[in-house]
Specification:
By secondary structure, the protein is an alpha+beta fold. It contains six helices and 14 strands. Helix content is 20%, strand content 25%.
């Protein structure tokens, strides 16, 4: 074999992935540099589209590569799921929304009662909801008994229960400008974790004999039902007495979850919009609250003292002794 033939053979091995020119055309094989440039431009275009979608708050911020039609591997499927979970609700985070899920309210039939083995009496006059109210797979049955309790059932067992007090008082809440279901409870989708919550409005007696008109959001957290948001909207001296406004609320679209804007009222019942605060879902505390500012790192060579710390009080062990305080003299006695 000649040297020229050997070089041609080696060159053929190295170019096995290059496209051969089509006979009768002017096309030439694509070089490695051209392929790298084309791949880089393609990846850049996808990245820019993702960034643009994220900046616009679009929920479909995940874009598959149209050049790939093969089946996702497990790792690709996992990444796709994570991307969907990171997708934020579309629209302006400060946009007012109505989170009510009307389809969750149902009538309690014999079949539904038997499927969940729910304990409901005829005189309970309950409000019934179905849907995914807990983190467990499947749907649950929620039985809301006004002034008594709320119970969540799965098809296997009772998940959680919370005693309730108060009554609906729809006329009073209508006076506050709230258009509510007469039952005072509705299913909502506020915490965006693939579960539903309950929004309740109740007139409740207080310890001092007056009445408070409260709004609450109830959420199933493990084997419990937590009151993750609760505020007093108004008060009255008697059960049917005139209302004194305390504040009102609004639901905002938010980012990762729906936000709640609380607007206080002054002594005349006027809304103080300049003093409104936005409460966000705190997953670690399991409640809506005003976000706390991030903790600052302590300054170097400076003792950090908490505002709640008690002042330092010297103890007997730390006080200097009289011998330490008195001057010391050298003895001149040779003995």
């Amino acid at each position: 074999m000649s040297a020229l033939t050997g070089c041609q053979t080696m060159q053929g091995w190295l170019n096995t992935e290059s496209e051969a020119p089509i006979a009768g055309s002017n096309q030439t094989p694509e070089s490695n540099a051209d392929r790298a440039l084309r791949s880089s431009e393609h990846a850049t275009a996808i990245a820019l589209e993702r960034a643009r979608a994220y900046a616009q708050g679009r929920a479909d911020a995940y874009f598959a590569d149209p050049a790939k039609n093969d089946v996702d591997t497990p790792s690709q499927a996992t990444m796709r799921t994570l991307e969907r979970k990171k997708a934020r609700p579309a629209g302006n985070p400060l946009e007012l929304i109505n989170p009510t899920i009307a389809d969750a309210r149902v009538e309690l039939s014999a079949d539904l009662r038997g499927a969940y083995r729910a304990s409901v009496k005829e005189d309970d006059d309950p409000e019934i909801f179905t849907g995914n109210f807990s983190s467990k797979p499947g749907t649950e049955l929620v039985v809301f008994k006004p002034g008594k309790e709320v119970v969540v059932y799965s098809k296997d067992s009772r998940i959680a229960r919370l005693p309730l007090s108060g009554d609906a008082a729809p006329e009073a809440f209508a006076e506050l400008g709230l258009e509510l279901d007469p039952s005072g409870v509705q299913a909502v989708d506020i915490v965006q974790d693939n579960t539903l919550q309950l929004l309740t409005h109740r007139r409740m007696p207080t310890e001092d004999g007056t009445f408070a008109y409260k709004v609450s959001v109830l959420k199933v957290i493990g084997p419990f039902i937590g009151e993750v948001f609760s505020h007093t909207l108004a008060t009255s001296e008697t059960e049917d007495g005139p209302l004194t406004r305390v504040g009102t609320y609004e639901f905002l679209r938010g980012e990762d979850h729906r936000d709640i804007r609380w607007i206080p009222a002054d002594d005349n019942g006027e809304w103080q919009t300049d003093q409104a605060v936005v409460l966000k879902w705190n997953q670690w505390e399991g409640m809506y609250r005003v976000p706390a500012p991030p903790a600052a790192a302590p300054k170097r060579n400076q003792i950090q003292v908490s505002e709640n710390s008690a002042p330092h009080t010297p103890t007997k062990a730390t006080l200097p002794t009289s011998a330490a305080l008195s001057p010391r003299y050298l003895s001149t006695n040779p003995g």
